[in-house]
Amino acid sequence: MSSELLLSHTKRVFNIGLALFLVSIPEPVGVFAQDSELYQLDEPLMLPEEDEKGWLSALNQFGVTGSLRTGYWSSNRLSESDSDYVASSVWLKLDKRLRRDLTLYSEAYIYDEDTLGGGGTDGQMKEAYLHLRSGDWDYRLGRQIVAWGRADRLNPTDNLTPRDFTLLSPEIDEDRFGTEAIKISKVFGSYSSLTVIWIEHFEPNEIASTKVPGLQFIKDIPKNNNQYALKFDQSGGEFDWSISYFNGVDLNSDLLLSGSRGSDLLVIESYNDVEIFGADVATIRGSNRYAAEISYTKTEDSTGDDPNIKNNSFYGVFALERDFGDNLSLTTQLVYRRVSSYQDPRQIVQQELRTVASLTALMNNQLDPDEYGLNFRLGKNWFNDTLELEISGATLLARHGFLIRPKLTYALSDQLKVISGIEYFRGGPDTILGLQEANKLIFFESRYYY
Description:
By secondary structure, the chain is mainly β. The chain has helices at 3-22, 36-41, 55-62, 351-363, and strands at 64-73, 85-99, 102-112, 122-134, 137-144, 179-188, 192-199, 215-220, 227-234, 240-249, 254-261, 264-270, 273-285, 288-298, 313-325, 328-339, 370-382, 387-396, 401-411, 416-427, 441-449. It is built from four helices and 21 strands. The longest helix has 20 residues, at 3-22.
């Protein structure tokens, strides 16, 4: 995100916050049921610290926390041949209680992913919103992340706000960033809630630029002001479950052959409308947690006749999580995708159209009518949770391809942490994992929290 856009987002949220802060808001008569524990726990965070820590104490009293980070990365996740990057960043988080029922929350970072190479500084406003609780109602207004789903990291229902897959961070969920939205939730009884979301601004997933000899790519990002989503959630009983609906723009692009530029073909990365119906369920039995999450995506090409647009599809994740005790856990997941009205793009007669349509299908997991995969995550902690080992991986069952990702985290103190790991991709040129081979890397990062 450019500095001008970052400043624009900041001004917009500040103006919204100032307007609401000046409005007289009634005292709440209850607490949002699903977040009641968090609501009570964050009360002491706003109290002055008794010890003296200079400017850090002053920041914490105001609700500001964050971290300073620097590290080495052997690749930049941009599918490039360049290597050896020293990345530095400053992360800031503001969690400030304005009134008992009103909180201002924001998170942003400024980074330089090539500190020694003069790559320049950039930034991202991840979130900046006002959070109001009033009785059984919960409101969020501003730039926010909406993360849905009960499966582990692979979430078919998580389609509302984007990720930056090029971000040099060892933590997977740190690549999320929000969009401007209004979120309203209503609690019914002890366990149920209904959430309505209106998204004012569309931003797509950030991925490495596609590099194919003979093709030039141009992004066409729509300005869509009519995205909305609904979710009914049941949490806290024997089974946790939800059903959801999203009507908006696909976070991932389709490719459209648009002509030529010099000797290259010109390809438009277009973002088309989708409807996504989703559901998830989870339950705990002894030391096991079982979860399932599914979605059905309806695209603008329901007949499957347009090679420039994804087909309708089913996506399911079925998980088993096992706690073995002694800080050892294992999660395994079966992944299944089904493409409706499938037509093999590799059978298209015209060569240029075949090339672009096959690439679209490959990037969006639609090269085959059915796709199966397995992934796992093994975690083990030692020394009072100061040393953490995580080994995660994934493999395709229908085609050759796998990912392995060991990560080791050591907390030297409450404020200083070091993280190291490897990301290794392997696969054929006709697999999504094969496309990532140029991004295999090793990394080392140190973090100082304040």
